[in-house]
Design a protein that fits this description.
It contains 26 helices and 29 strands. The protein binds ligand MGD (2 copies), iron/sulfur cluster (SF4) and molybdenum atom (MO).
Length: 682
Amino acid sequence: MTVVNSSCMLCVWDCGVKAHVEDGKFVKAEGLKEHPVTKGYICPRGENLPAYLYSDSRLLHPYRRKNNTLERITWDQALDICAENLNKVKEKYGAKSLAIFCGSVGVENIEVAAFAQRFKSAFNTPNLLSVENICYRLRILARQMTFGRYLAEDFDKAECIILWGHNPDGSRAMLAETIREKLANEKMELIVIDPKRTALAEKGLHLQIRPGTDAALALAMLHVIINEDRCDNEFLEGYTKGFPELKEHIQQYTPEWAAGVTGIPESDIKIVSRIFAQSNASCILQGINTLDQHQNGFQNSRLLSLLQIVTGNIDKPGTWLTIPFLRMADLRLPMEEKPIGADEYPLFHSVWGRVSPYGIATLFPKAALEGDPYPMKASIVAAANPLVTYPDSALYKKAFEALDFRVSIDPFINETAELSDVLLPACTFLEKDSLGYVYGVVSGEPYAMLRKKVIEPLGESKPDWWIWSELAKRMGMGEYFTWNSEEEIFDHLLEPSGCRDELKNELGVFFAEKEYYQYKAKGFPTPSKKIEIYSDTLKDHGYDPLPGYIEPAQSPVSTPELFKEYPIILVSGARQVEYAHSQQRNIPALRALNPEPLAEMHPATAQRYGLVNGEKVNITSPKGTVKMRLKTNEAMMTGVVSVPHGWGLANVNQLTNIETREPITGYPDFKAILVRVESASY
Ligand SMILES: Nc1nc2c(c(=O)[nH]1)N[C@H]1C(S)=C(S)[C@@H](COP(=O)(O)OP(=O)(O)OC[C@H]3O[C@@H](n4cnc5c(=O)[nH]c(N)nc54)[C@H](O)[C@@H]3O)O[C@H]1N2
Ligand SMILES: Nc1nc2c(c(=O)[nH]1)N[C@H]1C(S)=C(S)[C@@H](COP(=O)(O)OP(=O)(O)OC[C@H]3O[C@@H](n4cnc5c(=O)[nH]c(N)nc54)[C@H](O)[C@@H]3O)O[C@H]1N2
Ligand code: SF4
Ligand SMILES: [Mo]
């Protein structure tokens, strides 16, 4: 028996894992107590890593689709077929007709995304359509445009925490434990803003909010804090630009008005504003994607920043903290051509000369199906499952079907791979060395970890970097892919970070101290060198320089006619600890814990529509219908149904749409659309 100290990459939290290996077989996963952050914690997915690795559903050889069946082929054949077809598409329609999709695994495992970016620019297509166009980058951008750089949530020493559209019991279980410990051992105020009374909401002050109206609440909180003179005036005068304009702007957004919009009593809005402003260190823990995937997405993020700013909760322990990013080498090559959507969403594409490597994923179907702005003819989908995880799945399916050639790079045959012409078997992170560093970005710590290989790749599966490199070599682009081992890749990627050698310790973890009050010496790297409460950058691009409130695109208020036919508000994608997105449904132990998707609804709402707990219901939006079991739950807000995402056969993205996009970033609306729920028994 040997033990490999590694970490889990099934989501961003990168929990340390002790992998027990017996006769070359990974037999047991345990939390790694020595890990500086996760200290021995792993969730049920982590405990089931051996079952994930050895799952019967693993794709272990290359395949091609012929006469609608899968035919096993050799790596040589597979790579030749890909090279020939991709070159054909390039010759006929130009390089930009290739779309490369990369999912959240690509974010969590830097080598996966870095090689996709390298390949994209070597091939000369600008169209990398990453999950970053539906998750997280929006809030990074909003904070960058406000502070000049990304500030992270440094909650350890917080005396007031707001969980705003965030339920860590599902999405970040380690944090949920920390919050419970803090509540038990320290004087701490917990405020939860959520349409559902979550388990943590039971432990604090709960504001039950109508989905999609968070901006109204935030504006009213600013109204209370500013008008009651609860601001940190010294901080505002010294380090910010645009506070007088904000003060004037928020006068229209009274708590009384916000109560009407959000459904939260006016008195609660006032109480929460005061607690937040009065605490010594207040920290909003913003839903990781929840508030982004809305009409108000960008301005939601701006507003939460403004709440931190006016109360001076910046860069001090327990607040939002300037994080010293570990700098990684950029594998992109210079490219002139802009991706789809760069003109429509210019700030997503580039801010102050910092160019994003991603196009607007929600515009892909239009390009593939209508040739607008130009035809999209081939795809490589690596570590993503857009057919389930992107909005309007039926439309995405049509779009993929319309392509001339499709490649999938994945350790499993997911729904998107089922449509592919060639399936290339990637190994999992347990079968290669890889690099985790996103945790540091999310948590504000200079952190990186070398995840050590636990076993050799199963079957003929290969690491992502090898697959991209070999494909590139067959296509005459070998000069850009000269690395021969993971060792060489990490030497290169980590060179600018200066922490390569430190990662060679036994745990493979680099973990530095946080630095507070950096702004006192360095200011803020915005054009004005101050925090931009009022954003000229937004104004110059035709957007509101100070955030306001927009009703959700579909709502009882904005679309009353639609509401008559679809009278329930759907929120989707609340995380469940057993699964990451569309993955792990094939692991029996996890499936036993969470056997089927459940639509959650308040019993009074169910009764109103003649529905009973446990029955199968049809949930219908203007886009389609999905069928699943109903679970009544008094914790839900009335008039709302909550449906998990990632279930292939009851896919909530059959209901979502790509038409109502967030105006600055093109993000889809996953959190507040209208549906009707009916009994499926007749
Ligand atoms: N309605 C609704 N839809 C949503 C959301 C929502 O809240 N509501 N959330 C959205 C969000 S925030 C996100 S981030 C997306 C996630 O969307 P995706 O990233 O598309 O989702 P996953 O199902 O995790 O797909 C990851 C794929 O990568 C494969 N994989 C795992 N490891 C590796 C590897 O090492 N190499 C390769 N090549 N492949 C690997 C897995 O087998 C899986 O097929 O979903 C979004 N979709
Ligand atoms: N187990 C597991 N963990 C994951 C993932 C996973 O797939 N599985 N995915 C990871 C990824 S990629 C992401 S992006 C994160 C997502 O993480 P978050 O975006 O933080 O999502 P959750 O923590 O699930 O919390 C969502 C909560 O928001 C509430 N909510 C819904 N709509 C609204 C609204 O309009 N306003 C407010 N205030 N609340 C609302 C829901 O009721 C729910 O309780 O999770 C990460 N962690
Ligand atoms: S899946 Fe679980 S064990 Fe793995 S990193 Fe995420 S929270 Fe940690
Ligand atoms: Mo995400």
